[in-house]
Design a protein that fits this description.
Pfam families: 4HBT_3, 4HBT_3C. This protein is α+β, with helices and mostly antiparallel strands. It has a domain of about 260 residues: Porin, CATH 2.40.160.210. The protein contains six helices and 13 strands.
């Protein structure tokens, strides 16, 4: 008997939903117990990766947890650990535990399991959306005619990072709505993106560099705010820990940069396209002599959703990534995600395992 990628036969994709919504759909398995879900469709396994795309697991865990809550609760933080590489050839079971249900906050933990082993775990906190409050609830005004609710809002602590500015001093602007300039090599999957920009590319200090890219889900998300938030969670893992390869100018392909000219022309063109797309420069041969990545694996991932009601993942969002620290075989990357109007939607942090390929030692002596 061959392994199945899903427990149940996947239904046809809903043409009224965005591609990302179909990809992140989860199915409840009440027959196995309360609050157990499974992936409806096969998750994506990036070429060359050890396992399935981590953003898909994060987002499906979030989607499963949201199914155990009323619609007026929206995620505000998500703390995740990647434990084992997930297989795209096996079904995933999402076990949701209802840790706490309060009047304003609710907490869920979710374990993603394959063959009885936990491959991923997350704790997710939700906050009740105040806009769902009954409009008939009593509210009084002060002597200036300002409602108590508005007065309370004005007294709240509030600030946010501003969207980065370009060389002209103006806030960065997104690509046009009809943007379609992605190379075919990267124009796949449920998200669309612009070429990546590497700020301070020539700096000798990796901590001074930043990557920036505009992204948006393809099509229109129709599943409400929970679907928009799951989509943001999905894309938050894209290029994340890999930022270190760009900040440190590390070679990441499975052959030496010195051998680029010996490759078949079509493969050479693909490498050059990816090199440019990721903001590394026009010519991959500039990487000759640079260190090579031996292993890079995400360890943990945190998302703080600052403005959950304002997330529109099917509209342009700007991602900005930088790294405050790397050492001891690990690295930390921080990410800010802005709406195109400048709203800071989310802040994300990821730590990953980062090991360089060590040069082969010469004149090894036999241990015999």
């Amino acid at each position: 008997m061959t392994d199945r990628t899903t427990l149940l036969r996947p239904p046809p994709e809903d043409p009224n939903k965005a591609q990302i919504e179909n990809a992140l759909d989860v199915t409840e398995l009440a027959v196995l117990g309360p609050n157990i879900f499974t992936n409806t469709r096969q998750p994506w396994h990036p070429p060359g990766a050890r396992g399935i795309y981590g953003g898909a697991v994060i987002a499906m865990c979030l989607a499963a947890a949201q199914r155990t809550l009323a619609s007026d609760f929206l995620v505000h933080s998500c703390h995740c650990y990647f434990l084992l590489a997930g297989s795209s050839e096996l079904p995933i079971l999402f076990h949701v535990e209802q840790v706490r249900d309060g009047r304003s906050f609710a907490t869920r933990t979710v374990q993603a399991r394959q063959r009885g082993r936990c491959i991923f775990t997350t704790t997710i906190s939700f906050v009740r959306d105040s806009s769902f409050s009954s409009s008939s609830s009593s509210d009084t005004t002060n002597e200036d005619g300002i409602s108590k609710k508005e007065e309370h809002k004005e007294l709240a602590v509030r600030h946010a990072s501003e969207i980065p500015r370009g060389e002209d001093g103006q806030p960065l602007r997104p690509p046009p709505d009809d943007y379609a300039d992605e190379p075919e090599l990267v124009a796949q999957g449920p998200f669309q993106g612009s070429p990546m920009t590497l700020v301070n590319r020539n700096s000798s200090k990796p901590g001074e560099k930043k990557t920036r890219q505009w992204v948006r889900a393809r099509g229109r998300i129709t599943g409400g705010q929970a679907a928009q938030l799951a989509a943001l969670a999905y894309v938050s893992d894209s290029y994340f820990i890999g930022t270190l390869t760009r900040l440190h100018k590390l070679w990441r392909f499975p052959f030496r940069a010195e051998d680029l000219d010996e490759l078949p022309s079509d493969l050479k063109e693909k490498v050059t396209t990816l090199h440019r797309w990721e903001g590394m420069g026009d010519d991959p041969r500039e990487m000759v002599g640079r260190p090579t990545i031996g292993m890079m694996v995400s360890l943990d991932h945190t998302i703080y959703f600052h403005e959950p009601t304002r997330v529109r993942a099917d509209d342009w969002m700007l991602t900005e990534m930088e790294s405050p620290w790397a050492g001891d075989g690990r690295g930390v990357v921080m990410q800010k995600i802005f709406a195109k109007d400048g709203t800071l939607l989310a802040t994300c942090v990821q730590e990953g395992l980062v090991r360089l390929q060590q040069p082969a030692s010469e004149n090894k002596e036999s241990k015999l």
